[in-house]
Amino acid sequence: MTHDLSLDDRTTLLDLAARTLRKTVYGETLSLETTDSDVLNQLRGAFVTLYRNGRLRGCIGRILGSEPLYKVIQEMTIQSGAFDSRFSPVGVSELEKIRIEISVLSPLEKVPGLDKIQVGVHGLYLQHDGRAGVFLPQVPVDNGWDVAEYLVHLCQKAGLKDDAYRHGDLFWFSAQVFGDSHEHA
After folding, report:
1. Please, what are the domains in the chain?
2. What does the pLDDT read at residue 3?
3. pTM for the whole structure
4. Out of 31, 152, 153, 177, which residue is the most buried by the measure of CB atoms under 10 Å away?
5. Separation in Å, CA 152 to CA 20, 60, 127, 167
């Protein structure tokens, strides 16, 4: 699974997310920007994660790329900052304390075998009985999970029995993860 975002592409997306978040918080009119970049116009899935003081403050994304990447980043920034149901909208007083992290996803692929899953490399998406759950590749690393724990937590997130991954459709993806203060490979 390869990544194709250059430093300029990553910088452009982070700047776009920061401007979008600021406009959202201040209630300013948002206009979807455009770009001539072939890479930023690719149909890619992505997540925008917001942190405040090292703690999760919002995270929403799209697994499948149905729109150009730059539009997905703008839309997911708005969703993460204002509409993540786990949190109140980001306020003006905390705006300067927010760190933005972007995860640009590879296309989904069916997991060829549970023994092939690598913590920190593969994000997982599970569908079963009309329910679904997803974790980005960095989540099990951040939580200290091994593969078995990763799979159980994925099932629980989807609201399924702990072994539902054995019966459902399990997909993996990689992510190029970068933020305004650090980067993950």
Report:
1. 7-105 (3.30.700.20), 109-173 (3.30.1490.150)
2. 55
3. 0.87
4. 177
5. 35, 21, 14, 13
137 touches 106 (CB < 8 A): no
DSSP 95: G
DSSP notation for 40-79: TTSB--EEEEEEETTEEEEEEEESS--SBHHHHHHHHHHH
Q: CA-to-CA distance for 118 and 35, rounded, in angstroms?
A: 35
> Which stretch, 38-42, 149-153, 177-181, has highest mean pLDDT?
149-153
Q: Categorise residue 2: left if φ over 0, alpha if ψ from -120 to 50, beta otherwise.
A: beta
d(CA 13, CA 180): 10
pLDDT band at 65 (very low <50, low <70, confident <90, very high): confident
* Coil/strand/helix, residue 157: helix
Q: How far is it, in rounded angstroms, from Cα 35 to Cα 139?
A: 31
